[in-house]
Amino acid sequence: MNNKFPELKKAIESARAIEISQAGGKYKFKILAFGERGTKLNANLIKEINFGLTESIKQNFSDFDYIISPEPRGHMWGLLVASELGKPINILRTQPSYGTNETEVARRTGYYQHNLYFENFKKGDKVLILDDVISTGGTISVILETLKKL
What's the rounded mean pLDDT across residues 30-49? Predict the structure, then answer.
């Protein structure tokens, strides 16, 4: 990581590491301020992350219709980036919205399980998936499998 993102570097380096016991053993991870277990973010950290994500997307992913971001925290970053890029966002909810065309899918991550609710997708949509943290790949796998079916 270069000197362009000092707040992000500090947040990663100072993140507390924890371990959760599960049926399959222990799951180790860091509680990142910008991740789903984080709580307090300073304005400069938010600006750095938003700028970094937005610039990376501009350079690497130009051909998409809208952003998809899952709750509980990915949607926060997705919303900021969508606003910067002038793109729509489709949030994958963790609670039903009781829509008429909603698809409910179980999601299991390294430390919890709950459902994601997909709505307003059409065949042929070109999407960019933006999530806050990828650790086990459980969330992204479920998103990709569900999008292929939809």
Answer: 84
pLDDT for 111 equals 62
Number of domains in the chain: 1
Backbone dihedral region of 96: left (phi > 0), alpha (psi from -120 to 50 degrees) or beta? beta
118 part of a folded domain:
yes
- Flag whether 89 is in a domain: yes
Residue 86 in domain: yes
Mean pLDDT of 50-69: 96
Question: Which distant-in-sequence residues (6+ apart) come within 8 Å of 39 by Cβ?
Answer: 33
- Give 87-99 pLDDT, tens digit per residue: 999 999 988 887 6
Q: CB count, 10 Å around CB of 130?
A: 21
Which tokens belong to 96?
């039903």
Q: Is residue 110 part of a domain?
A: yes
Assign residue 89 the CATH number of its domain: 3.40.50.2020
Q: What are phi and psi of 56, to 5 degrees?
A: -65, -40
Domain residues for 97? 48-149
Whether pLDDT at 150 is above 90? no
- Name the burial class of residue 67, with classes exposed (0-12), middle (13-18) and buried (19+) by CB atoms within 10 angstroms of its CB: buried
